[in-house]
């Protein structure tokens, strides 16, 4: 087996290992969702006058908030150490502290004695915001549990670096996908990406099982990231016995890669000094080498990517066949993991047993949204949908909220909406928990003349916004953020007008001077019409490498 030149021994290898782990965890967003849920739960308890439960829950929430603050501080310290090319010892200590802090937060939220969620929810009506968000909360907890075990396995691996296990690759793919990968895919993509388990042939392979799991998770993450600009997509996993190899394939119908990019992934020198991104495939290559596996990539721009890894089967051994759903089929048809609504129409490699009808296809097939989803017949009528929410609102003070993301190709890749609740506040954090920080947020309320007026707010978290839009680190700046938000405001306005919102609708823009500093006439006209905003010129598509 070839020795990796830059970090085969000593502290350099330890630094690389901690970087690999941190790159793979991606847990901060899920922890934030848990915090948001408990904040909402505490507010609901206050609104319903459940004082004793609110007091107890408030104490738990305060502990969680303090841990969340320490987690953000630990991540910032680690990020600064890496970006500033600090000495290896500094990076290693900061990375270990960050991982230990994550581990501590996971232990807290997974403790059955903490949070008292199910008991507390019994005091609230079933239509409360926190009761509606319970499924989303449990999905986040499910993923956090997987992170907890992955850190545990990593620590065990560090204590016993020669760990070796023989395992059935088919069973491992299926179990790990359902126990860990599915939650990440559903929450990270808001249900836009569908997991599919294709043919899984039982086969025994030998090696470091935790590393195999981390490699599989990393490949799925890359596939999901490749579909960030799609309304819907599929990640399919399979393994087939081919001669003396168990061949694992991970395929997606995402953006694909150029031949030059594929060559770079397969041949670039394995160096990670100072890097905070692009770690994933280096780890995949390293793990494949350790297993003695063959690695290849097939990709076409605009059509998707297939990663193939051929693991040597253990000689003279055979894994036990796993029973199929009906107890007879040797190779069952591809099975979907999760809702069917994410499957795009006419997908060429979709299973015939998993076709979706137009009635089941929705704009935002996210299982955790508290607002109603638009029916297929109105899937493109975003402006009319927001108006309908406002017009049918039963709250004392009528209104509606929505969140929307429009790409620089004028494609809507995220849309959620809801009328104001009859009792209590209606917030974007509850409507679109996974996207309220990265989407343009809007409210429709009556103005002083009782006319429906829209207030637009910029994405709340610029770092998350850049990640969601797949902007490379070197292109991120305050100026690029302002330019991108400027253009997205205009595209959102155009989309609303084109889909049923009257162009004369009054619009207000939060921090107008920041995003439209080169349009002084627009600032003088505020409040202005939605049509006027839609008529402004955009900067054009972001130039990509």
Report on this structure.
By secondary structure, this protein is an alpha+beta fold. It has 3 domains: 1-161, Butyryl-CoA Dehydrogenase, subunit A, domain 3 (Up-down Bundle), CATH 1.20.140; 162-319, Heat Shock Protein 90; 376-534. 44% of the residues lie in helices and 16% in strands. It is built from 18 helices and 14 strands. The protein has helices at residues 10-25, 28-47, 51-83, 88-110, 117-121, 129-132, 134-159, 169-188, 209-225, 259-267, 280-291, 382-391, 428-431, 462-468, 478-498, 512-515, 520-525, 530-534, and strands at 165-168, 193-200, 204-207, 233-242, 245-252, 294-300, 304-312, 335-337, 400-406, 412-419, 440-446, 452-457, 506-509, 528-529. A 6-stranded mixed beta sheet has the order 6-7-5-4-2-8. Strands 10-9-11-12-13-14 form a 6-stranded mixed beta sheet. Helix 8 runs parallel beside helix 9 (209-225). The longest helix is centred in the first third of the chain and has 33 residues, at 51-83. It is globular and about 80 Å long. 40% of the residues are buried.
Question: Could you give a quick summary of the protein structure above?
Answer:
This protein is 44% helix and 16% strand. The protein is of the alpha+beta class. Helix 1 packs parallel to helix 4, helix 2 runs antiparallel to helix 7 and helix 8 runs parallel beside helix 9.
Whole-number tally of structural domains = 3
What is the CATH architecture annotation of the largest domain? Up-down Bundle
The overall pLDDT average reads 77
What is the general shape? globular
Low-confidence parts: 1-8, 271-278, 322-379
Distance between the termini: 34 Å
The beta-strand count equals 14
Structural class: alpha+beta
């Amino acid at each position: 087996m070839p020795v990796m030149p830059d970090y085969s021994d000593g502290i350099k290898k330890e630094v690389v290992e901690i970087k690999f782990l941190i790159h793979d965890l991606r847990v901060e967003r899920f922890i934030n969702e848990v915090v948001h849920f408990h904040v909402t739960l505490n507010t609901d308890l206050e609104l319903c006058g459940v004082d004793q439960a609110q007091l107890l829950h408030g104490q738990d929430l305060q502990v969680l908030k303090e841990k969340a603050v320490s987690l953000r501080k630990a991540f910032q310290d680690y990020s600064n150490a890496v970006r500033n090319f600090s000495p290896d010892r500094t990076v290693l200590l900061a990375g270990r502290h960050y991982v230990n802090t994550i581990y501590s937060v996971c232990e807290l939220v997974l403790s059955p004695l903490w949070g008292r969620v199910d008991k507390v929810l019994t005091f609230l009506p079933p239509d409360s915001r926190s009761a509606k968000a319970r499924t989303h909360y449990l999905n986040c907890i499910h993923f956090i549990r997987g992170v907890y075990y992955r850190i545990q396995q990593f620590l065990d691996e560090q204590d016993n670096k020669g760990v070796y296990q023989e395992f059935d690759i088919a069973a491992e793919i299926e179990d790990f996908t359902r126990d860990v990968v599915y939650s990440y895919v559903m929450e990270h993509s808001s249900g836009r990406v569908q997991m599919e388990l294709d043919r899984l042939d039982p086969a025994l392979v030998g090696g470091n099982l935790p590393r195999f799991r981390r490699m599989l998770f990393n490949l799925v993450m890359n596939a999901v990231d490749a579909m960030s600009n799609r309304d819907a997509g599929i990640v399919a996993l399979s393994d087939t016995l081919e001669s003396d190899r168990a061949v694992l394939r991970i395929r997606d119908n995402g953006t694909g890669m150029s031949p030059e990019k594929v060559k770079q992934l397969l041949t670039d020198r394995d160096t990670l000094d100072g890097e905070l991104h692009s770690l994933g495939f280096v780890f995949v290559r390293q793990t494949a080498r350790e297993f003695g596996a063959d690695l290849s990539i097939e990709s076409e721009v605009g059509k998707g990517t297939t990663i193939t890894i051929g693991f040597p089967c253990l000689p003279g051994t055979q894994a036990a066949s796993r029973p199929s759903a009906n107890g007879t089929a040797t190779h069952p048809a591809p099975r979907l993991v999760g809702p069917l609504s994410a499957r795009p129409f006419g997908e060429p490699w979709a299973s015939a047993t998993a076709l979706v009808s137009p009635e089941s296809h929705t704009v935002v097939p996210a299982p955790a949204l508290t607002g109603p989803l638009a029916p297929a017949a109105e899937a493109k009528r975003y402006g009319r949908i927001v108006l309908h929410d406002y017009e049918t609102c039963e709250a004392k003070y009528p209104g509606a909220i929505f969140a929307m993301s429009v790409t620089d190709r004028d494609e809507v890749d995220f849309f959620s909406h809801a009328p104001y609740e009859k009792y209590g506040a209606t917030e974007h954090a509850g409507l679109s928990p996974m996207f309220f920080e990265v989407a343009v947020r809007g409210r429709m309320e009556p103005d002083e003349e009782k006319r429906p007026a829209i207030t637009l707010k910029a994405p709340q978290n610029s770092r998350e916004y850049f990640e969601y839009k797949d902007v490379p680190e070197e292109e991120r700046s305050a100026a690029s953020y302002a330019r991108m938000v400027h253009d997205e405001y205009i595209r959102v306005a155009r989309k609303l007008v084109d889909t049923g919102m009257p162009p004369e609708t009054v619009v207000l823009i939060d921090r107008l001077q920041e995003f439209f500093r080169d349009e002084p006439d627009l600032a003088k006209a505020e409040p202005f019409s939605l049509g006027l905003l839609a008529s402004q010129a955009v900067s054009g598509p972001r130039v990509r490498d």
